[in-house]
């Protein structure tokens, strides 16, 4: 792939991927045991393993949301696409992250209103539509998680190979190793904790690297970066950009990518059960502010870091310090995501390469843990506990969750290796993803938001959407290029047409079918039929007295949860989240990039300087939200409790159905 000599030895790659992975695993095992001793958080309980006891606070939720968008693909592809098409790309990528996260804030509080005991999004689908539709959704969600997880591992392993010379196949299999260990034992709470640790390290390095790039001797200032990029636009103008400039929002390719990525990410997020589980895990009082704060903060990473690193590559590739000098990067190197590794190597030598290696490892393992939990939950709860052993105990589900973690690690590494050896790169996966993830998006939303979507509509809509999307994708690739190949199917326009088709065909299909053969769903069925998992059987208990006792306990828990104050609070937060989601979509998609696209102008030096400075301020805000706010929001107090070796006597086992302190304080928030 790359003819450039790796700046770091292979030992550095193996040391980080294996050594640091195992070190994190051991550290998280210790933390998991400490939390069990201090706060009675039993990681051998399904309620803790899958949904973290539904007690995660605002700070940790927002940090986890930011971590959810620190994909290695986002860091690598954001830089390479800015290098190709210009600064408009960073805004579009940021919009594709922030908008759907704010939408998830709305969906999160809606699930707490209607299905407060849900463990996976698929459980909601099964209760509403039955087993056949549930099986269809299992396929759609597993397909979504497979493509997202494998693309992330593929991009990370390619970058690690470029930085260290480590064998790509070895890094593909070893990257998830340490993750699988601490996820195996710690569950979703371990994911939240590692999200925080990883995000802390990543944000510090990203802030450092942006400053290092701007102050590098061959650049020196924001104004000098502007001058270098202006010259790059004259030397190799971008087709479809206004005046061929990299410094314009009038970029056809950035616009096409923006539409493609915004639409595709709606499918990728809505059909990723991991995002739903993080919403289930948050306190009632933390779900909306945690998601919105994390969503707004996450905008800065592709905007600030992607813009600065991508434009720096344009400024530096004609200097002797550039790794490929006097040659420019090949298209294969760019497509594989090597723009950012080359920038890091140029501006900071081996130290920059080592820092980026750490960033890629952290971003990859953080997402890997969430994906493992999401996939293992489907295997254990939605497949094993629903169809194989309907009387599965809590212990049975945990065992199969552990098995699911191992299976996921091996399977995804194998798929990523197959992509690598088959000539598929990270960019191809980023572009085509929506063809497979979008068809289930609208029917999933309607399952929670529209009581009249019918079982038939939920069955037909995603199948028809996927059939139409794939047909348009492959047909357009043939029409544009005369052949269906990896290159043609990874091009912008075939992927754009296919993804948009796959997203929007299910909407009229579902609405028309639902209106022609109407049914109406009672939202109370969610609260009645979705129960917490207890230490005994999940279902099928034969003892009549036990059934009666458990039903009485469920009734008491429902009454304690759905107090008038809490219901009023959730309704108000739902309205607020809906307004914020609409506001974010309008602001980040319609009012910001589109008018600037229509303006037909290039950036002046003063505008460019202001643009970069504001993006850096936003990046520092993200650092504060990711690192310091979780500490302020209870993190320091919990750490002090653990250090003192005390036990929180007020903690109650999640199996008792008790609410967390933050949930119990909702009434106080309402009064305030």
UniProtKB/TrEMBL annotation:
UniProt entry tagged with the keyword NADP: no
Highest taxon above the source species: Eukaryota
Record-linked InterPro entries: DUR (IPR031155), Na/Glc_symporter_sf (IPR038377), Na/solute_symporter (IPR001734)
Localization per Swiss-Prot or TrEMBL: Membrane
Lipid bilayer topology: Multi-pass membrane protein
Alphabetically ordered keywords of this record: Membrane, Transmembrane, Transmembrane helix
Biased composition (Low complexity): 653-664
A Pfam family reported for this protein in Swiss-Prot or TrEMBL: SSF
Principal location class: membrane
GO CC, alphabetical: plasma membrane
Transmembrane segments: 12-31, 51-71, 91-109, 135-156, 197-216, 255-276, 288-316, 400-422, 428-449, 456-474, 576-595, 607-632
Signal peptide: none
A GO MF label: urea transmembrane transporter activity
Family: Belongs to the sodium:solute symporter (SSF) (TC 2.A.21) family.
Listed PANTHER family: ACTIVE TRANSPORTER, PUTATIVE (AFU_ORTHOLOGUE AFUA_1G17570)-RELATED, PTHR46154
Official protein name in the record: SSS family solute:Na+ symporter
């Amino acid at each position: 792939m790359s003819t450039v000599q790796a700046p770091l030895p292979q030992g550095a790659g193996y040391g980080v991927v294996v050594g640091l992975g195992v070190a994190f695993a051991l550290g998280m095992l210790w933390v998991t045991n400490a939390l069990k001793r201090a706060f009675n958080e039993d990681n051998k309980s399904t309620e803790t393993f899958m949904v973290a006891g539904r007690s995660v606070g605002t700070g940790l939720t927002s940090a986890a949301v930011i971590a959810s968008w620190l994909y290695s693909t986002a860091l690598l592809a954001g830089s390479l696409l800015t290098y190709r098409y210009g600064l408009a790309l960073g805004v579009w990528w940021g919009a594709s992250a922030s908008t759907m996260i704010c939408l998830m804030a709305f969906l999160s509080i809606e699930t707490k209103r209607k299905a407060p005991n849900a463990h996976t999004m698929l459980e909601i689908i099964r209760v509403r539509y039955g087993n056949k539709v549930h099986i269809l959704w299992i396929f759609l969600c597993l397909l979504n998680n497979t493509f997202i997880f494998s693309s992330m591992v593929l991009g990370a392993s390619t970058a690690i190979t470029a930085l260290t010379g480590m064998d790509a196949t070895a890094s593909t299999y070893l990257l998830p190793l340490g993750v699988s260990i601490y996820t195996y034992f710690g569950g979703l709470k371990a994911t939240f904790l590692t999200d925080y640790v990883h995000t802390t390290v990543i944000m510090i390095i990203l802030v450092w690297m942006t400053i290092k790039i701007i102050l590098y001797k061959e650049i020196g200032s924001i104004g000098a970066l502007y001058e270098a990029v202006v010259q790059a636009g004259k030397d190799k103008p971008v087709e479809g950009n206004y005046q061929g400039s990299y410094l314009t929002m009038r970029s056809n390719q950035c616009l096409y990518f923006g539409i493609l990525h915004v639409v595709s990410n709606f499918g990728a997020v809505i059909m990723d059960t991991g995002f739903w589980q993080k919403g289930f895990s948050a306190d009632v009082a933390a779900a909306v502010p945690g998601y919105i704060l994390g969503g707004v903060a996450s905008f800065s990473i592709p905007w600030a870091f992607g813009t600065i690193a991508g434009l720096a590559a344009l400024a530096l590739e004609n200097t002797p310090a550039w790794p490929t000098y006097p040659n420019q990067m090949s298209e294969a190197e760019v497509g594989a995501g090597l723009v950012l590794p080359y920038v890091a190597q140029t501006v900071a030598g081996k130290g920059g390469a080592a820092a980026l290696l750490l960033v890629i490892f952290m971003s990859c393992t953080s997402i890997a843990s969430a994906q493992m939990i999401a996939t293992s939950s489907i295997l254990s709860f939605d497949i094993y506990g629903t169809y194989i052993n309907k009387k599965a105990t809590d212990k049975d589900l945990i065992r199969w969750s552990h098995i699911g973690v191992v299976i996921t690690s091996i399977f995804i590494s194998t798929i990523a290796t197959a992509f690598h050896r088959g000539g598929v790169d990270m960019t191809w996966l980023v572009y085509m993803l929506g063809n497979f993830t979008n068809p289930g998006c609208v029917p999933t939303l309607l399952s929670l938001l529209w009581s009249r979507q019918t079982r038939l509509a939920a069955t037909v809509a995603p199948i028809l959407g996927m059939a139409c999307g794939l047909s348009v994708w492959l047909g357009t690739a043939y029409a544009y290029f005369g052949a269906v190949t990896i290159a043609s199917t990874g091009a912008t326009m075939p992927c754009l047409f296919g993804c948009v088709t796959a997203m929007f065909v299910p909407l009229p299909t579902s609405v028309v079918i639902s209106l022609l053969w109407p049914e109406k769903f009672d939202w109370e069925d969610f609260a009645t039929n979705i129960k917490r998992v207890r230490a005994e059987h999940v279902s099928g208990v034969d003892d009549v007295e036990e059934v009666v006792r458990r039903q009485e306990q469920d009734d008491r828990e429902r009454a304690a949860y759905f107090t008038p104050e809490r219901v009023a609070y959730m309704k108000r937060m739902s309205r607020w989240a809906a307004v914020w989601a609409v506001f974010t979509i309008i602001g980040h998609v319609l009012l910001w990039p589109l008018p600037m696209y229509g303006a037909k102008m290039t950036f002046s030096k003063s505008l460019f300087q202001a643009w970069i400075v504001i993006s850096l301020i936003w990046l520092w805000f993200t650092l504060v939200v990711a690192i310091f706010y979780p500490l302020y929001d209870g993190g320091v107090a919990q750490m002090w409790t653990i250090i003192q070796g005390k036990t929180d006597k007020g903690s109650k086992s999640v199996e008792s159905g008790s609410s967390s302190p933050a949930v119990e304080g909702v009434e106080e928030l309402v009064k305030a």
